Amino acid sequence: MKSHLYLALLVIAFISCSEDKETKNQVTKKEKYDVVFRENLAGKYEKWYLTDGSFKYIYNYTDRGRGPEISEEIVLNDQNYIVSESITGVNYLTDSLDETFNGTNSTATWKNPMGEKEADFDGDKLYFRHDGSPAVYEILAQLLLKAKDNKVGLYPKGDATLVDQFSITLSNGSVVNLLMVKGLEMNPRYIWLSDNEMIASISGNLHIVREDFAAFRKELKTLQGTYEDEYLYNISKEVSNKIDKVLIKNVNVFSKEGNIIENQDVLVDGTDIKSIKPSMGKVLNGIAQIIDGTGKTLLPGMFDMHTHNTKFRGLLHLAGGVTSVRDLANNKQLRQLGEQFNKNEIIGPNIVTYCGIIDGSGPFANQRNVVDNLEEGLAEIQSYKDLDYNQIKLYSSIRPEWVKPLASKAHELNMRVSGHIPAYMTASQAIAQGYNEIQHMNMLFLNFMSDTIDTRTPLRFTMVANYGRDVDLKSKEYLDFVSLLKTNDILVDATMSIFENMFISQKGQPSPTYSKIISRLPLIEQRAFYSGGLPKPGNKVEIFKESYDNMLNALHDMYQRGVSIVPGTDGLPGFLYHRELELYVKAGIPAAEVLKMATINSANITGVANSLGSIEAGKKADLILVDGNPVDNIGDIRKVEWTIKGGNLYYAEELYNKMGINHYK
User: Fold this and answer.
1) Model confidence pLDDT, tens digit, residues 493-549
2) CA distance 662 to 665
3) CA 330, CA 316: separation in Å to the nearest integer?
4) With a threshold of 0.85, does the pTM exceed it?
5) To 10 degrees, the CA torsion angle through 300, 301, 302, 306?
């Protein structure tokens, strides 16, 4: 009896203590922010001021069944540096987060996806979490404004620099500051402040805006865009080398047949290839600028056949040797960006395919060009045609009964049809109703699982990860499907590298997709590639690997059976493209054939082979010089020394340096 009474008293005491602690540490103030993703209200961000001087943050948004759900607590020292931080919840791919940091008594301990560590800590550097709320950006901005040299040290390594700040008066008379920060990511980070507090963070499609400034979100975006453009205009002026006559001497040339022709002299005259001849020794001075290509390989500029372009991504494309791209879903202002690329106002590739996207309404809609009914979908196709787009991409929330009439409308307008397979439909059914191509290898594998899978949700990934290994590549069902692809000339846009990262990478270890280049990247990009892709509890590591290996096997089998395949990324430009080519070779496709896919084959598919895709006299001089021979070793494709496009030569090292990336050397 006494023991029960004692236990009861302990419970009461614990509850009283907890309540007392809660009472002492109450919320004194809340700042609330809208989280807007692709122009739709998608979540919230809240900052809570607590009575003990600490802060709590709530952050979440949704993107087609994915998205972070984060709770974060932070304690700052007198100098405004983080001395305690706790982050829990789930990341964008809904994998668990559990990150902590504590810095006291000259020592810091921390736990994050890279493991648990301890080191000296003096409280004068900013711990930058792996994944969490936007809180750290506000703290960093405040520290930068006080820093004498416009620089703040990051912990455990790195630093961030305040490159510029702008005082701006909004249309309502409010005076706000826009800070431009470098050192965290490849692109500058822009942070909006008012009275030293963050009012907005606008980065691509993700906008976080304090509620009292929500009505000015588009104004902030437009204003920020002008400063972003000016920054990129200046980069273009600094790194573009206008060429007149250039002779690339004694270089090995990759031909459109897939051969290496050794020791050639290639003469470029402005934007065109003038001649290709066997190297004859010395050249008289003054005829042309001479570039020694001895021991190196000259290739046509490559084609990334699955991109989503922004003004910041063009630098990466050209640094990686990609001079032409298909854009497979963007806003309706994409033509304007394409013109800026063409004029070299902003550095970027040729956009050779403009593809409009249409999705049906619903909780998992793509949030870009969403329609409620078939009639709206048909009108959208016409609007894209009027903008001179040449392809339509259908997305997962399209109703299956809409596919045939939408495809028919597009075909009437001489537009191709591609996309994800709509929910509760199979790839075979989509082909029968008018698809010309299919994006992503997982969409092909789902064909063998069920026509009741909701492809709007993450099931489109997890079903393949769990059961892709069971797809029998010798079964009649599979062979009939491959025959359907071949008979109907269906293009396969496999994007194998994004599935390697999802299925194979493990939390706390460098993703194999990016392991060769992680050390070259800025801090935030490095950390992102330790997150582990899809959650892999229990024996899922081996299961997911077997499923991915079977996807590679299918890629090789489809190639051998004559299915048209193109390399595309749907992700990080340049670096992910190089990995895509490496994976095609890993699957068993000869390197020379992979390089043909990347060049002349893609030029033929996009209808530009008369001017691009191969090194021939009279064609455009979109060229790349590689230090090595990627036919013998596909990994050499990463060693791009320079790229020529549109009469300008760009040194890869200079382009990378502008993004805080180290060159391969």
Assistant:
1) 999 999 999 999 998 899 999 999 999 998 888 888 988 999 999 999 999 999 999
2) 8
3) 18
4) yes
5) -150
